[in-house]
Design a protein that fits this description.
Helices cover about 55% and strands about 15% of the residues. The chain is an alpha+beta fold. Strands 2-3-1-4-5 form a five-stranded antiparallel β-sheet. The protein is elongated and about 105 Å long. Keywords: Ribonucleoprotein, Ribosomal protein.
Length: about 170
Amino acid sequence: MRKEDKGVIIGQLADTVKQYGHFYLVDTTAMDAAATSDLRRKCYKAGIKMVVVKNSLLHKALLSMEDVDYSPLFDSLKGTTAVMFTEVANVPAKLLKEYKDGVPSLKAAYAEEGFYVGAEQLDALATIKSKNEVIADIIALLQSPAKNVISALQSGGNTIHGVLQTLAERPE
């Protein structure tokens, strides 16, 4: 591969890392063509961009980015590496957990501005809440007291109405 081509690929990888907020480094060595194709289909349906890269080019792309120090991931760049780019941090982890035999296996991940190295981090990554899930939790917490007040007022209103109606019907 020519040096100019490598420079273009490194630039594209750096742009993709910036575009998506989170990425996973996955080992797909033990997968055959049919299993890899199936994984790609599942990634596409889940909104994940999966790219198989040369480790040295990804290493240079991560080095070229000055806003984050990606050095904790460099030891994971060995063997066959597929990169799963995503905008929602926990989606690739949930997808990888569907595979019971450990293939493909997680090498490392950068999610929610944190580094997760090793396959044992998969459970932690799967439990990370997405931005929308956190917002939904906050809204539910904020609505809960208001719902309690409204229901108390409504039930109290029925009680007061019943008392007034009984008093009005009572003979003098």
